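Hello,

Following up on my earlier ticket. Below are the two sequence lines again, exactly as submitted.
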Amino acid sequence: MQQKIVFKNVTRRFDLRDNTFVALDRFSLDVADGEFITVVGPSGCGKSTALNIAAGLLAPSDGEVLVDGHTVDGPGPERGMIFQQYALFPWLTVRENVEFGLRVKGEPAARRREKASYFIDLVGLGDFADALPKTLSGGMKQRCAIARAYAVDPSVLLMDEPFGALDALTRVQMQDQLLETWSRERRTVMFITHDVDEAVYLANRVIVMAARPGRLKEIITVDLPYPRTEEIRLSTEFTAIRNRVWHAVYHQ
Amino acid sequence: MNAPPKTARQPDRVAKARAPDFQGLGLNFVGLVAGIAVWWVLTASGAVGLPPPPDVARKFVDLVANGQLATDIVSSLARVLSGFLIGVILAIPVGFVMGWYKVARSLIEPYLQFFRMIPPLAIIPLAIVTMGIDETPKIFVIFLASFLASVVATYQGVISVDRTMINAARVLGAKDLTIFLRIVIPASTPFILVGVRIGLGSAWATLVAAELIAAQTGLGYRMQQAQLYYDLPTIFVSLIAIGILGLAMDRLLLAIERRLTVWQERA
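Thanks for your patience. The regenerated structure is below:
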């Protein structure tokens, strides 16, 4: 399969007052086109650093990230990003938020509207297209952010603990909905989480990272079919993989 | 993180919360009437040497009839609005430049912090000596008062724009100019409007004091004249006019602020 995202020996150092902190140490990873990978690890393992470098929001100290064979140099609409804090523009309605990236691209109003409507419906916010973000629940805000990221048609979705601020029940619903959206609009996804269950449930492969310095520890393949269902979540195979990941994360 | 799951609020509930609070308004009115009654009783009994409400009301009618009150109000408002508008129109771009460019911030900030510590009224002697005694020094002092308040608020607004929101715009393909126009400006609007309101308040306060010192018309001047002739009712009428006009301008700005920032999450 074709490689979509390639991390080549990516190192990121932060200069502190009296020493240097290595947030990410020689991190290498290949992500295939259309793959859904999740990244788990303790805090300080560099998982968000890796994601921000792929997004182009942070420059690597050494090494490089290639997306579609091109070195990442700054953010771009082909790499959509979803943040834990939603980062919706609160003065814009759901529809205007989703149209933001299309407007930046200079697409005509009719096409903007059509595309925005499609993705708003896809995430199930059809009845709230004209609502302001302040009237939405946390889960709905994140669905709006997902629609906004999808609207500019990125080939890669980078998700930084997107469900981290949601309650447990909403989180499970959001996982199912994300997989549903992903099955209909297939993109390469790199998803950061600190929740082992979530990591296993969503992914083709789970990337386990270790801290101090932040580095790749283990890659665990999740050999479970899509669509993932409650049955799969409660199956012994799921539990077995979950235990392996748990072990890799907590016994470092 | 343990907040209970929130559901989408229905629009009609939001509308209901906006309905006027009749009970509160009724109590406001009762308080107002009671205050006037106390004033009346105290002055009628001779406990204090102030004019009773009927004298003030009669003076008010006189001043309206001979056009003096209108002239004073117009000249006071003209001064405050010109100084205030110049101040705000200059403060917003300066505040944006300070918030956006660190170099500009470092260059300008010491002056700003320094002049903020000088009460605008303390500038009046200097302003009169250098600018004469016509409108210029008064407008200048008002300009300074509103400029300082608004510039600080604008620049605070710009530097407190959420970084994640800017990053979200960047990953959607927005470049600096778009981020400035579509993210930084709307995100800092609530701060700017608060600054503008504070600016108007201090402009109004400064104006009246400036007129007490050097003017030929205006509400402050009228009080100063009345003081010479021991004309207490005129002083009362002027004071009440100053209070009502200040309140009206503040409420107007508050309404504009509410309208422009309906999107804000309020506690």
